[in-house]
Each structure stands twice: as structure tokens, then as C-alpha cells.
Design a protein that fits this description.
Layout: H1 3-20, E1 31-35, E2 38-41, H2 42-55, H3 64-84, H4 91-98, H5 105-116, H6 122-134, E3 137-139, E4 145-147, E5 152-154
Antiparallel strand pairs: 1-2, 1-3, 4-5
Amino acid sequence: MTARRLVSLVAALAAAAILTSGCGAVERPTTAAVVDGRVITTGELTRTAEQLDAAKVLAQPATETDVLNWLILAGFIERQTAASGSWSPDDKYYAVAAQVAAPTDATLEYLKARVAVSSLTSADRDAILAKLGAAQITVNPQFGRFDPADGGLKTVDAPWIKPAPAPTA
């Protein structure tokens, strides 16, 4: 290997190391949350909300915070309903999913969770809350704070965000 090739290889490896190390996932501005190592991006939230709104499958417009909350819960709901047999994708789910043009995986996860939640037994709910309590869930403060006790996002006081001054006439 020539010296020139060796220098090029070392430079490429150094660049790759710099790009793949450094800040944790939650510190990246495009990360909305990390759930047991699974990164949920702000792009997923935006795209899912757009798809839900375009299909008009919800009674009111989807918010990114609502989408995030359901995406955090989705895996726990899916695993619990599969384990207990209380729900599996059914006609209602497929009918709702069919209304969304080219749904992303995140959109389908959201829809499964929203449809499945009505089939949860009290034992399912207790098991999900217990698993949420044991999970590693980190949320970008922009979206609030996740409370595993009730499985919901809570708003946080954001003193670094200052409201825009009222316009003057």
C-alpha cells in the first residue's frame, strides 16, 4: 500500500469515526425520543402527522406531540396484545390504514396503537405500565417529559423559550 493510499484510508476512517461518534441520539436536533435504543425522529413525527391529516382519519388534526406519545407506546401495546392475545390487526385497523396513501412504518405503528388500545384489558394496561416503568425512555424537552406512571407526555416549563413580543400598531 502506498503512503498516499494509507493517508487516504486513515483520513476516511477518521472522518467516519467523527461522524458516528460524539453526541448521544437525544442530543441530536432531529431526535424526538429514544425508547429502549429505538430513535424516533422529528421527521417521522412530521411525516406521520401529515399522512394522518391528509387521510382525515382523526377527528382533529394530528400534532407531533400526540404522534410521539403514541409512537412511544406503540411497541409496548403491540407486544402486550400479542402476548395476551387481546388484539391483532383486524378489519378496523386495515380499513383505517387503507385510507392513508403510502403509509410509512411510523404511521402504521401509530394506527395500530390507536386501534389496539380499545381492546386492552386491565391486565394489559397494568403490564404495559409496568414495562414502561422499566424502559429507558428519553424525550427531547421540546415535546415534554414522558411519565411512565400513566404513559403520557407532560409539558415542561421551558424557560429558554421566550414568547414573541406582541406586535405594536
